[in-house]
């Protein structure tokens, strides 16, 4: 099984598990659903990756950060449940599972599962998004759109598209449902590694908001900002954000 296939398979399976958690805890509190989803997906991913790639290191949002990853040749960067709030709200579809592989300084494989949509986007076979006619669509948080996204909207004469998790936002650009995702409010490597791997496979522009490269598997996993957009908008977006 290739690394691409493994990423897609375990992300999809973790998503199926999360849908089961949702059903099992439909009458529980949102906090109980969040906690159960985070833990059960993390435990599954750690076991699955450990069984298939026992020599690889793992950086997970829900796990203790093992410094051995800093000297490892291969590191899986995972977010077992991206968008816990959306997951906890029964009926919402804008949450995701992220599985990415870093090797020799680069993201080399990745998958973003959107379980409630029945979709998993996996490298290297992600198709470029279809063309869009009309005003650029800037995807933002449904509760707290960052000021930089509003500035990009104004500069591009765009419209806002509200959505939940980071993975769902990047996936919406890949799927052609939006055109630009720009974030500057603070994220970690697990929030963007798999989405960025998938976006690159689809031919999209990815960078920090100052135009510099996104770098993964660093000692400090904080990676607070990024731009993912259709390549034809990259120059205009970076003119606003840099």
From TrEMBL:
Keywords tagged on the record: Magnesium, Metal-binding
Record field: catalytic activity: adenosine 3',5'-bisphosphate + H2O = AMP + phosphate
Annotated residues for binding of Mg(2+): 61, 79, 81-82, 191
Entries under CDD domains matching the protein: CysQ
Family matches, as Pfam families: Inositol_P (PF00459)
One GO biological process term: sulfate assimilation
GO-annotated molecular function: 3'(2'),5'-bisphosphate nucleotidase activity; metal ion binding
Names of required cofactors: Mg(2+)
Protein name as annotated: 3'(2'),5-bisphosphonucleoside 3'(2')-phosphohydrolase
């Amino acid at each position: 099984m290739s690394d691409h296939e493994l990423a897609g398979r375990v992300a999809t399976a973790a998503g199926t598990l999360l849908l089961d958690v949702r059903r099992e805890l439909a009458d529980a509190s949102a906090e109980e659903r969040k906690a159960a989803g985070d833990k059960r997906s993390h435990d599954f991913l750690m076991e699955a990756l450990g069984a298939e790639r026992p020599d690889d290191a793992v950086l997970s949002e829900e796990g203790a950060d093992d410094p051995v990853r800093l000297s490892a040749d291969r590191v899986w960067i995972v977010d077992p449940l991206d968008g816990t709030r959306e997951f906890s709200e029964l009926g919402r579809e804008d949450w995701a599972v992220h599985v990415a592989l870093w090797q020799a300084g680069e993201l080399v494989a990745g998958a973003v599962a959107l379980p409630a949509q029945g979709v998993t986007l996996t490298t290297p076979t992600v198709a470029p998004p279809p063309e869009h006619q009309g005003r650029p669509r800037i995807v933002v948080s449904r509760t707290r759109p960052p000021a930089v996204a509003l500035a990009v909207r104004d500069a591009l004469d765009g419209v806002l598209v509200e959505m939940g998790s980071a993975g769902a936002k990047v996936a919406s650009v890949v799927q052609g449902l939006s055109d630009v995702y720009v974030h500057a409010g603070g994220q970690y490597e697990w929030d963007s590694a798999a989405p960025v791997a998938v976006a690159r496979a689809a031919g999209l522009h990815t960078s920090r908001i100052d135009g510099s490269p996104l770098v993964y598997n660093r000692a400090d996993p904080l990676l607070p900002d990024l731009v993912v957009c259709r390549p034809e908008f990259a120059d205009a977006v970076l003119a606003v954000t840099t």
